[in-house]
Known about the structure:
The complex is a heterodimer. Chain A is mainly alpha-helical.
Amino acid sequence: MFDASPLNRRNARNEMLVRLLLGAMTGLLVLPVLLILGTLVYKGGPIISFEFLFTSPTNGMTAGGIFPALLGTIFLVLVALLASVPLGVAAAIYLSEYAPDNWFTRAINLAIINLAGVPSIVHALFGVGAFVIFFRFGTSILAASLTLAIMTLPVVIVATRESLQAVPQAFREACWNMGATRWQTIRRVVLPNAVSGILTGVILEVSRTAGETAPIMFTGAAFFLPFLPQSVFDQTMALSLHLFVVSTQVPGMPEELPFGVALVLICMVLAMNSLSIALRMYLRGRKRW
Amino acid sequence: MVTATPDTSEGAASMALPKLQVTDLSIRYGGTAALSDVNLEVREHEIFGIIGPANAGKTSFLKAVNRMDLFNPDMEVGGEVRFNGVDTSRIRNVYGLRRRIGVVFPLPVGLPLSIYDNVALAPRLAGQKDPAELDVIVERCLQRAALWDEVKDRLDSLGSLLSGGQQQRLTIARALSQEPELLMLDEFSIAVDPVTTMRIEDVLKELRQEITIILVTNLVQQARRLADRTAFFLEGRCVEIGATEDLFTGEVRDARTRDYVEGRFG
């Protein structure tokens, strides 16, 4: 009764082949990640030290550390977050909880999707026109961060909107039926249950922001500065631009230095992503329905 | 604003104003009629039963009373619903209206808050901040919903993780915590075991002293046990309204009512 017919055997063989093929594809996908990380650790690992992280570059950037660039990237990301998170979360709450479903709302949603598709170099030129020139911020942390903020706004809006919409509609209606206003419902029931998704979206945004080069290149990041920025109206160095500079612009660069810079940058991004994943797992463990 | 004082121009002098006065009520969803030409009155301090098979428009009726058409742009309500003599379509402060009307729908919704916060939510929305007062309200409402004994030791665990039947009783407790003038129950016993159902029915009988209740049920015997008067809805129309006992003893105007009550279709 359970003897394999020729058809059964052919199905079993196909099953094995498909599984192998799909598995191989997945393996192929992991390969570049491993190669990149492996090369960086192998070639750049030895240069990483306390001095490398916490001193300034010397000798025309061919020696010394990367501290001003590391600090600059952290500044840029923080100021960008301060601008994009309140704006993005507020817009997402409006779009998800208040906006009527009509052509105007749909047009706004479309605009947000398109904003996410604008190439970063275009954002950079917009930043120059709007923040550096029109608002007279000059090339500064503020101008660069605001450019980054505009660029990452769609990510914050979409992540927030999706976490809001993951809260079941029945909860809202139950609240409204008790006489709660929309805002009371959002504050007491919707937001507390969406906050995990919003947080992970924001952290993913941070890691993206940290690696961007084009948008900050013309708006506030400098090749080399002999001093640390004193306010948001100063220019700053940044890891991503620093990597570009030491890899291509400076003759006589020791080979391991660019690899070291790249390793620090990628570790920052990976650390952020891991934090986001850990947070998501922790909050999912406390899921409330 | 909703006001408890009746509109005097309506000739309230002769007899008590009905709690709810429904005139030519029609409800459509995106062009499809769910309810047509319903005329009825719900009197103060009565339990008003609504029976009828699925798709009769019973739930839509409740939604119109609570102005839930505002949640759903597809839902169009025609005709007039007067609550305490006030036309609900003219009430600007719908929050005030909904606070006076407690609703319980067939699918229980335990909000993702603690059990305590679920029941304390409505009083808090109404401005009650005194913890001692809130404790009293929470205990009283959970007692009445026959849930207190099961949850009194874990009031801070999540309401949304209770079992279906417990969530349904939590929903009832929450509706009671609004201290509503009108309580609308839509097939509340669907997720509740028979013993608990009987306990809640006893509570409803007590509550009749204080408030008005509309009881939508697909258990005709439940309507017989509880309702003073009962309406029979069928295919979006109100076929018959009468004293409950008349409906069950065959004193009916429409043969379909008798057939339904006796279980010959449904």
